[in-house]
Amino acid sequence: MAAVSAETLADVEDVIAATFGRPHYAVTADTLLEVDLHIDALSMAVLVCAVEDQFGIELPDRVAATMRTVGDLAAWVTTAYDAVAARVASPAESVTS
User: Fold this and answer.
1) Residue 60: helix, strand or coil by DSSP?
2) How far is 66 from 63, CA to CA, in rounded Å?
3) pTM across the whole model
4) Contacts by 30-37 with C-beta closer than 8 Å and gap 24+?
């Protein structure tokens, strides 16, 4: 699992709190999405859209289905950012004919 910065975790917590009207103190890295926040499949679809809009990344449904905690989601956001940064940092391969 990717190391998650405090800033990324706080941003993910903010998205969840704002999307579901939860108090910030109720959303931490260890908060269980389904058990503690009562996020079902429909709510997860709403959360996926909110995360994608906030962070400008795509969260595939198959990945979203594996998320158990807020920390899991924050780790995935970090991993997605790292992947984008790696693609930007590596030069595009040129194709010669």
Assistant:
1) coil
2) 5
3) 0.83
4) 30/69, 30/70, 30/71, 31/69, 31/70, 32/68, 32/69, 33/67, 33/68, 33/69, 33/70, 33/73, 34/68
| pLDDT, tens digit, 9 for 90 and up, residues 54-77 | 998 999 989 999 999 999 999 999
Coil, strand or helix at 41: helix
**Who's near 15: CB < 8 A, 6+ residues apart?**
47, 50, 51, 54
CA 34, 39, 40, 44 torsion-angle sign: negative
Asked whether the beta carbons of 49 and 41 are under 8 A apart, the reply is no
